[in-house]
Write a structure and sequence with these properties.
alpha+beta; disordered N terminus; 52% strand; 233 residues; single chain; elongated
């Protein structure tokens, strides 16, 4: 009587401790495969874009290539950042007013200036995921990123009935490190930072389109960081 009872107890314990019963998926079924496609936006770009006095409305697509790698592309529209544009307009207005006053016209203490921005940006990125316990597109990643951006700044002075155009072109070569996770089955959170090498070309044209001057290129090295939110499928 004792031996059969012991046998049944051991059998019940073995069934309860079976990995197939403790797993989150039914026995014999494989866990769901990680998503292979991700669509993302950059909410912080609506506050401030990559280029001065701009906002950035960006959408990106990431395609998983294998267990450790992916390839991503993105496109952005650059528009006027009105709070930062106001700061720039105020600085221009103050500088012009001071110049007029110093030139012998003390009555001219203020002149209006407006800055309007329009442009675009494209990016291409390869990612290698370093976290061994997770497959792409989740975990710590490292990878190169190349981007090209161009923006036109239309600066106008209504009091003088004149304007000029500033055209800026940026080509960035980046090495980014970041971490991406998928919450549940679909919600994507992606944070990153990295070092950039920037090639910048800034030119100024008069209202008739004639080239006036080319600005200095400035510092080539910079640091980038950002946040992406998206949907995995």
């Amino acid at each position: 009587m004792l031996l059969p009872l012991l046998r049944y107890s051991l059998l019940a314990a073995g069934l309860l401790l079976s990995p197939s019963l403790l797993a989150q998926v039914p026995a014999g079924e494989a866990p769901p495969a990680p998503p292979r496609n991700l669509l993302k936006i950059a909410p912080l770009g609506w506050v401030h874009g990559q280029l001065p006095f701009s906002t950035e409305s960006r959408i990106s697509y990431e395609q998983v290539l294998g267990g450790r790698s992916s390839l991503g592309v993105s496109g952005s529209y650059l528009g006027t950042n009105y709070p930062f544009s106001f700061i720039g307009s105020f600085a221009l207005s103050t500088a012009i007013s001071s110049a007029i006053t110093l030139s012998g016209h003390p009555a001219a203490v203020w002149t209006d200036a407006k800055v309007r921005t329009r442009g675009y940006r494209y990016q291409l990125q390869y990612r290698y995921y370093l976290t061994r316990k997770r497959q792409a597109p989740e975990g710590l990643y490292l990878g190169p990123n190349v981007s090209y951006a161009q923006a036109d700044y239309r600066v106008s002075f209504p009091d003088f009935n004149t304007s000029f155009l500033i055209t800026q072109k940026n080509t960035n070569y980046n090495l980014l490190i970041g971490y991406q996770t998928v919450l549940g089955r679909h919600l994507v959170i992606d944070v990153f930072t990295g070092l950039d090498r920037r090639d910048k070309d800034t030119r100024i044209y008069d209202r008739n389109g004639s080239h006036l001057t080319t600005m200095p290129k400035g510092t080539k090295a910079k640091i980038s960081s950002g946040l992406n939110l998206g949907w995995a499928f």
